[in-house]
């Protein structure tokens, strides 16, 4: 009888109950996000030596020392309606002479944006590593690209090219 009692105590002494908790897993699937480069940036014909900063204003209001054919770059973003985006770009891009030589110029990129396709109403985006903005009620957001080449001092003449890359993700 002692054995039976001992076995009974042993079994109940080690019995444990577990505790459980639950969470819900959610995912929101949005319309595919896209960005297109619509218009290439062009500083136009500029002098090899300038008295000040060669600046192409992405808002289109205050460009300096650029040619008469200068044009800001344009991007169009399409995604879900009224949704937060994270927009990022390279702060600086190297422009390299395309023919005869290895001369370069540094472009400090400036980007402006708006949920309306109106450049003059756009605002300067100031954080290249990631700026949060919201698409329009129709899912659009527009960007304009410009920037500074600095003051030129006997810059090697010729045509220079580089690539400005903008990245966009849902936020």
Please render the helix and strand layout as text.
Layout: H1 2-13, E1 34-39, E2 53-56, E3 73-78, E4 84-89, E5 92-97, E6 104-114, E7 123-125, E8 131-134, E9 140-151, E10 160-161, E11 166-170
Antiparallel strand pairs: 1-3, 2-9, 3-9, 4-8, 4-11, 5-6, 5-10, 6-7, 6-9
Question: What is this entry, summarized?
Answer:
This protein has 171 residues and is mostly beta strands.
Note down, in words, how this protein is organized.
The protein has 171 residues and is mainly beta. It has one domain (32-170): Immunoglobulin-like (Sandwich). The protein contains 1 helix and 11 strands. The strands form 2 sheets. Strands 1, 2, 3, 5, 6, 7, 9 and 10 form an 8-stranded antiparallel β-sheet that branches. A 3-stranded antiparallel β-sheet has the order 8-4-11, with no helix packed on it. A hairpin with a 6-residue loop joins strand 5 and strand 6 (104-114). The longest helix has 12 residues, at 2-13. The termini are far apart. The model has no long low-confidence stretch (mean pLDDT 92).
Structural class based on helices, strands and sheet pairing: mainly beta
Helix count equals: 1
- The strand count comes to 11
- Strand percentage lies at 35-45%
Give the CATH level 1 class. Mainly Beta
Mean pLDDT: 92
Gyration radius (Cα, Å) is: 29 Å
Order of helices and strands: HEEEEEEEEEEE
Helix content: under 10%
Low-confidence stretches: none
């Amino acid at each position: 009888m002692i054995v039976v009692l001992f076995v009974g105590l042993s079994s109940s002494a080690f019995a444990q109950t577990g505790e459980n908790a639950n969470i819900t897993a959610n995912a929101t699937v949005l319309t595919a996000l896209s960005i297109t480069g619509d218009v290439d940036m062009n500083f136009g014909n500029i002098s090899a030596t300038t008295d000040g900063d060669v600046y192409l204003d992405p808002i289109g209001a205050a460009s300096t020392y650029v040619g008469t054919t200068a044009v800001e770059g344009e991007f169009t973003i399409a995604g879900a309606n009224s949704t937060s985006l994270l927009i990022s770009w390279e702060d600086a891009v190297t422009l390299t002479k395309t023919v005869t030589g290895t001369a370069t110029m540094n472009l400090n990129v400036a980007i402006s944006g708006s949920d309306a396709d109106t450049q003059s109403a756009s605002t300067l985006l100031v954080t290249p590593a990631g700026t949060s903005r919201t698409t329009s009620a129709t899912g659009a957001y527009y960007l304009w690209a410009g920037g500074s080449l600095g003051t030129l001092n006997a810059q090697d003449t010729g045509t220079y090219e580089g690539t400005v890359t903008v990245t966009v993700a849902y936020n």
